[in-house]
Amino acid sequence: MDKNKLGQKRITDILGPSSEKILENLSEISPDLAKYIIEIAYGP
């Protein structure tokens, strides 16, 4: 599993179904920060 998919799964496990909308909103403001959070903070 790549860092992006693993990070998204972990965020969903923690935040529940609202995680998708939260990440979408964050991506609109700062795509790089959203990617960092998904891949680095919650990835492997």
If you had to describe this structure to a student in words, what would you say it looks like?
- Helices cover 80% and strands 0% of the residues.
- It has 44 residues and is mostly helical.
- The chain has one domain.
- Helix 1 crosses helix 3 and helix 2 packs across helix 3.
- The protein is flat.
- The mean pLDDT is 88.
Distinctive features:
single chain, mainly alpha, 0% strand, 3 helices, 44 residues
Map the helices and strands.
Elements: H1 3-15, H2 19-29, H3 31-41
Instruction: Estimate the strand proportion.
Output: under 5%
Structural class: mainly alpha
Mean pLDDT: 88
Tally of domains: 1
Provide the helix percentage: over 70%
SSE order: HHH
What is the CA-based Rg, rounded?
Answer: 9 Å
Number of helices, where a helix is a run of at least 4 consecutive DSSP H or I residues: 3
Please state the overall shape, judged from the principal axes of the Cα atoms. Answer: flat
Intertermini distance? 10 Å
Spans of at least 5 consecutive residues whose pLDDT stays below 50 are none
| Tally of DSSP β-strands | 0
Brief synopsis:
With 44 residues, the chain is an all-alpha fold. 80% of the residues lie in helices and 0% in strands.
